[in-house]
Amino acid sequence: MLRTIAISSVLLPGLVAAQVAGAQSGQTSPPSYPSPWMEGGNGWDDAYAKAQAFVSQLSLLEKVNLTTGVGWEGEQCVGNTGSIPRLNFRGFCMQDSPLGVRFADLVSAFPAGINTAATWSRTLFNARGNAMGSEHRGKGVDVQLGPVSGPLGRVPEGGRNWEGFSPDPVLTGIAMAETIKGIQGAGVIACAKHYILNEQEHFRDKSSTSEASSSNMDDTTMHETYLWPFADAVKAGVGSVMCSYNQINNSYGCQNSYTLNHILKNELDFQGFVMSDWAAQHAGVASALAGLDMTMPGDQGFDSNTSYWGGNLTASILNGTIPQWRLDDMAVRIMSAYFKVGRDSARIPVNFDSWTTNTTGYLHALDPTRDVQVVNQHVNVQDDHAKLIRQIGQRSTVLLKNTNGALPLHMPASVAVIGEDAHSNPGGPNNCSDRGCDIGTLAMGWGSGTVNFPYLVAPVDALRAQAATDNSRFANYSNNYDLKSAQMTAANASVAIVFVNSDSGEGYITVDGNAGDRNNLTLWGNGDALVAAVASSNKNTIVVMHTVGPVIVEAMKNNPNVSAILWAGLPGQESGNAITDILYGKANPAAKSVFTWGKDRADWGVDVLYTANGSPPQIDFTEGNFIDYRHFDQAGIAPSYEFGFGLSYTNFSYSNLQIQKQNAAAYVPTTGQTKAAPTFGTIDTSVADNSYPPGFDGVKFYIYPYLDSTTPVNNGTKTPVPPNSQSSSPQPKLPAGGAPGGNSGLYDVLYTVTAKITNTGKVDGIEVPQMYISLGGPNDPKIVLRGFDDLSIKAGQSATFKADIQRRDISNWDTVSQNWVISSYPKTVYVGSSSRNLQLKAVLNGNNYNGGYGGNGNNGGNYGNGGYGNNNNNNNYYNNNNNNNNGGWENHGGEGNNGGHDGNNGQSGDGGHW
Ligand SMILES: *[C@@H]1O[C@H](CO)[C@@H](O)[C@H](O)[C@H]1NC(C)=O
Ligand SMILES: *[C@@H]1O[C@H](CO)[C@@H](O)[C@H](O)[C@H]1NC(C)=O
Ligand SMILES: *[C@@H]1O[C@H](CO)[C@@H](O)[C@H](O)[C@H]1NC(C)=O
Ligand SMILES: *[C@@H]1O[C@H](CO)[C@@H](O)[C@H](O)[C@H]1NC(C)=O
Ligand SMILES: *[C@@H]1O[C@H](CO)[C@@H](O)[C@H](O)[C@H]1NC(C)=O
Ligand SMILES: *[C@@H]1O[C@H](CO)[C@@H](O)[C@H](O)[C@H]1NC(C)=O
Ligand SMILES: *[C@@H]1O[C@H](CO)[C@@H](O)[C@H](O)[C@H]1NC(C)=O
């Protein structure tokens, strides 16, 4: 065929170069200034107009108050900004977590992100987001700190992977978008976090002795894998993004001008505000100029009583280091998010307190000299969310193995339930603070991404109740280490159900020697030995796993006495009920694994960096796009169970794949310029007016916006800043930018794929057909997920699976034109029931690629004009760290010099020569 010729003649230099350059220790991000100012558009216009009107009436101090947290534990939420008493406007309340309302009572404990993903249901993604949003709203929260797509899940041991969705960026992106729409639809601002490349817990933080690790990343992988779900979040209208603790290319996540200014605010056209992770800000001026809009919790270190912003931000405006337009942009972005989700009508007073469960307490937890009042009104916000939680629990349980119809159970004569993980924590489900232990049944990981359980249904209790209904004899045993007793309990039962787990969490808590990230991929608490022992005494052993991600299951998979294996993940408060529904066939399993189950940890090809390899530690993402199944496919490694795999109690057949070309317009790179930076209102430059009012009686440990004697206002010199960082002139737009989520043409539908799915079994069921695409290039993964749906199909009936192929779905990031291009490599569409069971296949007709890339990219001047120089000699303001005199973005000529490697090379407009 002609294909080979076409392939070699249209090799995309950028794609090859990226592979060669890869990710390298010590590499730096190019500087990008000025920070893009908000311009509205695309669903933000009303909010922007209201925000402008609001911000225009504010004083300098009031604007600063909106940007700066009052300090750790200064108010009732985990993060709180200053207020505007003059306008009776209380400060913002930011509250964890991605699975509910942290530090509160009478709230729901939702399934973790990873379970939610395993439903593959847009409806459930959205419903969970909306239910969580409504609980936050009911407690008075302005910003729910979730959802999570960083970590994405590069390494299976990563401690916080379960807070997010899946290492697949498309599944995660859709889950992000629907969750955000759900949360914001309830009148609460969502926060997409942690931006970006925060893929492990070890070394994520700057400490007194070490800088945080640097995640070193190439431009192609950044776009094709890690940025992808954030693009979906921005496209969905997310109001806030949280920058991460780690460094990216040796510049901190909250002051990296390339990731914040260039990629997030320019290319992705993000209109909301960027807030720092808690104490992830390490400089005042540098972070402001690099695009940070809000500092959390406001103090430099928890309760340090000093801030990089607050009075320092006021000073840097007055001394001309930060232009007024930048502060106004921060304030307008924050208020636009507020108006966009309707906070102006949804807002109620904060009625809970993160720092005490007592009804009465100090309004400011650290200041016992004032304001004792009712701080917990114990508002019940749970509604009927338990039903949804149980449903997601069912829908997220993956049936991995089921021999000889072992499941579903039907009135077994006797049932033995074995394992600590089936039982309650004797101290109660909230016995360990932030769930920082693994005692009893596991239903969420540990760290800030948690809530207090209102209750937790242990599997043993739900199964005992079911056994009573069925007149089944029932026995249970909870000690994982007394294998003899476990065997005796199991020996004569019709079925032995063993519960096991594996836990992980956030790095500030260490559990059983695991400092956030898991040390291994085996089961915890003697789980593997327990399964083997029980299976040796009962030929009908069923294993249920509550794990934060993959564990090594090859032995139980191959054990003939293990008749069924289920992954129940981290299902939240209704755990026992949900698993009982599945085991007894009251719900038919429909979930598919959202990660790969390798046979050995080495199979993943990447691992956590557990031991520092330098200072700062360098984490080189040299595997590029090849994480999880993309790596297993590339390396030809057979997993125990593949990504996308999951059984049902019925069977489905796939037929009749059709591809319909749609009439999309040609792709037009964005051109043109922004307007000049606007300012809102005038600033009173009087030092006296911006200082502490006479006789001011401040709250202890509280951060205020006022100038103080330690804060220089102007010492007669100019503080050096990056070139262009103060410029308010119109700026060029990026070819791949121009709309939230990037160039709107990326989301044009080029093809629609349909297939017929038939339920060939005897019971009704839900199937999740998956669409994968092979992009065909030498550096492309074998296949990438691009679409899915969850279809309810009655026994004997059929349904039509339908998935759109958007332009982005068949494009690659081209580092040279700095745009997405459709390569001429032959593209194949697959529809199947997992990533390795691709029943249907068709070649996409290249002539239909429809326009590709027009190639007059216009990305010149915005990269900054070369390096920003050598200004590391003063503390903390625009340095990414204190000891990088020979590195970091400041010193790096970056791409600025060659600002215009722009696209007179429209190489791929002609997608299909073959
Ligand atoms: C990281 O550095 C590499 C090499 O300079 C560059 O290609 C890439 O775009 C940078 N990425 C970010 C996010 O700074
Ligand atoms: C800033 O916020 C603090 C805390 O809410 C408040 O006490 C103070 O009055 C505010 N300052 C101004 C100028 O509004
Ligand atoms: C301003 O920043 C400096 C340097 O980090 C710090 O010492 C000082 O306390 C800060 N001022 C305020 C008011 O927080
Ligand atoms: C301006 O204020 C900022 C924040 O306090 C400070 O870091 C900087 O050194 C000041 N610059 C001058 C020239 O006073
Ligand atoms: C809660 O109330 C108890 C009993 O009055 C008191 O001992 C305790 O200190 C209070 N806790 C907090 C955090 O205020
Ligand atoms: C893996 O880690 C868990 C939790 O720390 C521990 O219980 C288990 O024994 C470890 N597995 C191995 C093989 O060391
Ligand atoms: C003014 O402040 C800047 C930043 O802190 C410092 O580098 C400079 O030496 C100071 N100049 C004078 C004249 O004090």
UniProtKB/TrEMBL annotation:
Catalysed conversion reaction: Hydrolysis of terminal, non-reducing beta-D-glucosyl residues with release of beta-D-glucose
Xref: InterPro entries: Cellulose_deg_GH3, Fn3-like, GH, Glyco_hydro_3_AS, Glyco_hydro_3_C, Glyco_hydro_3_C_sf, Glyco_hydro_3_N, Glyco_hydro_3_N_sf
Entry keyword set: Carbohydrate metabolism, Glycoprotein, Glycosidase, Hydrolase, Polysaccharide degradation, Signal
GO term, biological process aspect, one: cellulose catabolic process
Gene3D superfamilies to which the protein is assigned, alphabetical: Glycoside hydrolase family 3 C-terminal domain (3.40.50.1700), Glycoside hydrolase, family 3, N-terminal domain (3.20.20.300), Immunoglobulins (2.60.40.10)
SUPFAM superfamilies: (Trans)glycosidases, Beta-D-glucan exohydrolase, C-terminal domain
Biased composition (Low complexity): 875-889
GO molecular function: beta-glucosidase activity
Pfam families: Fn3-like (PF14310), Glyco_hydro_3 (PF00933), Glyco_hydro_3_C (PF01915)
EC number per UniProt: 3.2.1.21
UniProt keyword Cytoplasm, yes or no: no
EC class (word): hydrolase
Biased composition (Gly residues): 890-914
Residue ranges, annotated region (Disordered): 713-739, 875-914
Domain Fibronectin type III-like per the UniProt entry, residue ranges: 767-835
Keyword Signal: yes
Signal peptide boundaries: 1-17
Family matches, as PROSITE patterns: GLYCOSYL_HYDROL_F3
Pathway the protein acts in: Glycan metabolism; cellulose degradation
Family, as annotated: Belongs to the glycosyl hydrolase 3 family.
Name of the featured protein: beta-glucosidase
